Every structure is written in C-alpha cells, then in structure tokens.
Amino acid sequence: MSKIIEIRNVTKEFKVLNRREGLKGSLKDLFSRDYKIVKAVNDISMDIEQGEIVGYLGPNGAGKSTTIKMMTGVLEPTAGEILVNGNAPYKNRSRNAQEIGVVFGQRSQLWWALPLVESFKLLKDIYQIDDKQYNSMLDLYRSLVDIEPLLHKPVRQMSLGQRTLSDILAAFLHDPKIVFLDEPTIGLDVSMKAKIRTLIHALNKEKNTTVILTTHDMGDVDALCRRIVIIDKGRMLYDNDIEHLKGFFGSYRTLKIRIDGDMKEKAEKIHSELPQFSVDSDDEWISVLVDEDKEKVIDVLAGLQKKHDIRDMQLEEISTEEVIKKIYEEGVE
Amino acid sequence: MKRKGFGFYFRIYCKILAQDLKSKMSYRADFIISTIGMICTNIAGFISFWILFRSFPSINGWSYHEMLFLYGFSLVSLTPVQCFFDNNWSLRINVYNGDFIKYCFRPINLFFYYQSEVFDIKGLGQLAFGLGTLIYSWTKIGLALTPLMVLKMILFLLTSSLIMIALQNAAAATCFWIQNSFYVLDLVLKFKDYAKYPITIFSPVFRFIFTFIMPIAFIAYYPSLVILRPDEVPVLSWLSPLIGCVFFWLSYKFWMFGATKYSGTGS
Q1: Out of A104, A107, A125, whose CB is closest to B12?
Q2: pTM, 2 dp
Q3: Terminus of chain A with fewer CB atoms < 10 Å: N or C?
Q4: Residue A1: its pLDDT value, please?
C-alpha cells in the first residue's frame, strides 16, 4: 500500500470583515478595514492510502468543504503542506485534476443539454482516455448498473437519482486515483441510496480507487467506510477505524417522548429525575440521550411512564451530529 | 499525458459546439423566436440610425454611407463576443450560487472550459446583418476591392472583436470581487453603443475616456479609419491590433486571477 494523500499541519485562514449592526454599521463597514481571521481548517494532518474509502464527517461549517477544496487544488492552504499523488494540488491544478474525480451531490458537472453518452465522449477527449480503456470502463459500468436507459437521455431530463448516478460514473470514467464524493446520496430515496452505495463499493473494489466521502448520512458510512475522520470547527477530532467508533455510538440512542403540558418545564423535571442523561426539548418532543451501557432504553421508558402521561414516543439511533457533539464534549476513549 | 496545445482545444471546442447545436435545434420554437428577436433588435437599431440621418445628412464631416460603414463594422466585430463569450453573462450567477466550482475540476484551461459551454447562435444573425450593411456601404462609398484592402479589413475586424471581448471579460470578472457585476456588464454594453459613432463628435473629455479608459473607440472608429480615411490615419489606428491583443491578454489574466481568488460557497 502506498500513500496517495499526505496532509501535514494544514491550516486555512479566511479574512472576514467584522460586520456591525444596522444601517449605520453597514455604512461604517464600507470604509472599515477591521478584519478578523477565521480558521476554517486548523492544523490538520492525515495520510490516506491508495484504495481506502474514508468517511470525512463533521457538522455543517466544520471545514470539510474547505479541506476538499484544498485537496482538489481550488484553494491554497495558508500553512502546511498537501501532497496528492506526490504533487501539491494548488501549484498545478490541471495536472491534479487529471488524477482525481469530483462529485458534488447536488451540482451536476455534466453538460446539461447533452445525452450522457455525449458527455462521456467529451470527457474521453478532455481526459485523453484511449479507446480500449474507455470501452472497458463502459463494459464495467454495464455490468454494475443498468446504464442503457441513461445513456441517451439528456442530463436535464434525468431525475436527481439518475443524475447523481451519472455524475459518479463520469467521475470514475478516466480511472482517477482518487474520487471525492461530497454528499452523494443527499436527497435520494432509499433504493437509490442503496444502488449508489453498491456502485461506489464495486468501483472501489474493481479499480482500487481511493474514495473520500463526506456525508451526513450514517447509512453511507456504515455501508462504505472502514475508516472515518471527524472534524469540527476546523480541528480534527477523530481519525480511526469505524469499528472503534461503532461501539461508541452504538450504545447511545435518543428516546423521544411527547407529554401534555409545557415541554420545557417537563423536560427540566425529567432531567432532574434522570441526571445521568442529557435532556433536550423542542416544541414537539422531549429528547433523552440514553447511554445503554448505563441503563436500557426500555427501562428508562418504563420509569418515565410511571410518572408521566406519555402520549407518543420515538426511538432514534444517534445521528452523526450527536456523535460528533459527544466526541467534541467528551472525547473518544 | 499528451501536451494540450491549440489543436487539442480546437478539437474539443468543435465537438462541444456540434453537440450544443444539435441540442439547440431540438428546441425549435426557442431557436426561431430568439432568431426573430435578434433580427428585430437589429432592424430597430437600423431604423433609429436611419431616422437620425434623415435629419442630419452628415455628422462632423462623416457622410451617411460612412456612418453606415461604421455601424456595419461594429456589428460584425461584435459577433465573436456574442457567439463565443456569451457565458460571461452567466458568470455572476454561477459565482454567486457556487456552481462556478464545477469548472475548477477539469484538467483543461478554466477560461476555455467556461466559455466553451455556451455558443450563442443568435450572433450569426447579427453577423449576416452587419456584413450586408458593410458590403452595401462599401460599394456606395466606392471603395476599391483589392486583396490588400480585404486583408486590412479582416485584420481590423479581428482587432475590434478582441477589444470588445476584452472589455466584456474584464467587466464579467468583476463578479469575483463584487456581489452584482451585472451593472458593470450593463455599463459596458451601454457604452458599446457609442462605438458606432466617430469619436470626433464627442467632447475632448469623452474622447479621452473612450480612447484610454474604456477603449470603445477601438471597436469601430480607429480601425475603420484605416479603410475610410487612408490619408489621415492616426498612429492609434495602426497600433490598434497590438492594443487589441494586449487588452485581450490583460482581460484574460484578470479573469483567471479572479477565478483563483474564488473559493466557492460552502456546501
């Protein structure tokens, strides 16, 4: 195995104008040079091996996109070093682009008006793919998904699912060493999600392509990633096997209940009854984050039912956001 | 990886163009309506020009036919910018909503890739109209038709096109820094209309502006002097091919510089 991506102490800073409030403030801002430095990515290091599928997670605004933009050569790091396939992506964006494929969940990179097969032919020319490789890739695609109905359909007439599928196929077409997938299953139905996960998995196996996957869907992570990296507020929080984390978030579940009366008041009361768990409330639900190592959800529910008149309940597996929140608050170990 | 020279880009452009035309033809109504629209715009422009010259037989020593020549010249020289660089008009939208980032992931020149996406077929109507006007006024003025003249004509038409393209590139690229570059583009478009008139009719202040700051006088006036008034050609006319290339190169650099400043909206 060889290292395909090396990231060494990378930091990316943005200059942001300190905005004042109100019209008067805006006028002042026009002439102000009062900038503050925001660190979108703060001292991140990691190595990624050829053929890995890495889940790159973090809440919105954590710095995921910024890291990906640096790896694809769109942004230059403020400090530190990135090597993709041995080259600094920012210094030669074009050469780097030859070795990578990128898919953004909701932004198609294909030619809107063209049928998919024509887009493929253009990509064949742009990436200078030879006929043999091109045909064998199409044969591989045919064996994995039913692409015939897609090939002659203009991209603009496709459903979101078909478009995402097409975008993924297009990203793998020139047999890149790395493919970046930014929320590839966002907004898709369950069966399409499954289809796309199977496809990504198969392409990774077949071509030994490194895949960097950002997502908010734990289903994607479960189906595809052996390793996950979590960042928040620009800092790396976690970088390890998923098995390691699974035990961690497997034991947490969110119990949501609905009780008549003022939710906030009730939530406080429940929290005083269950001080070992964190309790949240919104207009509809009171959420109790239960650590099943300490107490079974069913027992907690039974206990609550004795004291409160529960009208409705839901059980949720912990979401990525919550795992990250937990990790952020308590750390892993 | 093979070198990506002119041949490579030319081949890719032709393929994109062929595909684009094919798909445009499939929207027949859209195609016909926009062609009719373009013809109407040109006819309207011509009528207002004609009415003007009903009342004034000549402007500042420029006869009706000479003015018509300028008019035709500017129409023809505006064709390339209309046909090949029309995607500049969408640049601000692409930058604003973050779609611009998709152009950054291909191993080809960013500027080329962006502009190659749109070919505006409406420009061809304008070309036909401009050429007609040019040929008509050419015969009416009684200009000689020698190979040298034709060569000069082509050279200076290309020059004017380059300057117009440069102006539009630069105007469009402002959107990498400011929120709404539409007004800048629109301003350039408005000023472009003055390109049809001989610059001598303006006051010295505007003459200076149109020559050195917003060089629209190079779009039709200075280049066509070479054809129309071979005896009194200012140095600026002869310099204009060079100026055209320099301006185009500068606008390209400015555009690319803006693109590297671009960081995309978060997703």
Answers
A1: A125
A2: 0.81
A3: C
A4: 57
